[in-house]
Amino acid sequence: MKKTTKIIAVVLALVMLLALCACSGGSNNSNSSGGTPSTTGNASTDKLTTANEGFLTMATNAAFPPYEFYEGDKIAGIDAEILQAIADKLGLQAQIDDMEFDSIITAVSGGKADIGLAGMTVTDERLETVNFTESYATGIQVIIVNEGSEITSADDLFTEGANYTIGVQRNTTGDLYTTWDIEDEGLGTIDRYSKGAEAVMALKTGKVDCVVIDNEPAKAFVAENEGLVILDTAYAEEMYAGAMSKSNEDLFIAVNDALKELIADGTIQAIIDKYIPAA
Length: 279
Prior knowledge:
By secondary structure, the protein is α/β, with parallel strands linked by helices.
């Protein structure tokens, strides 16, 4: 009996030692700064750090229908619904902060917002400051003119000696593209406004010759302003994505994986179709 008791004691000691080793090993892995976060999209989010604990905060400029716009005192639109869908997947509440478009990247990179969703295009310049999620929509930059304008296509802006004045919303891709293509090449002048509606008003009052802006808000502006038309030829085509901080990799992976799942299961397309019905 004594021999048996000794054997049992030794076995129990070994079991306890192995259990302690296993616990110690698991603790080191979970706290390792070099560990790879889960990429399942449904991973536990209790350790995610967000700008406002328990919330997924979106920075936007709510003057870009149908992607973001005010419906009463609430911000609605494609990006607002995408934010809600991602937040639901991560077990977080959705929060939207409205600001000037050119403040969005600063808010995201500075940790004041978790993601910038504002019909924003991936560019090399922006990639120097933030990461971008999977693209979730295609945008087309178009040209708005007054009826009867001598500008009838995008090519007219590049005609030798044309020298048109083009209205854009500051720091949008319309601003970037026309700056690179036209202003930097000495082919015309770019007038920059804080809101697309201000650029459109400048067109109506003759301060600019045309406006370069995304197709969807362009359609809304033309519908609201008699005498304006959108040219048949587009200025540029681009892909929209969410801007996120480079310093919060766990949150980026969790949000991006959730977005990928929402794209794969058709949720994102359904949201887009709700606001932009197929022709």
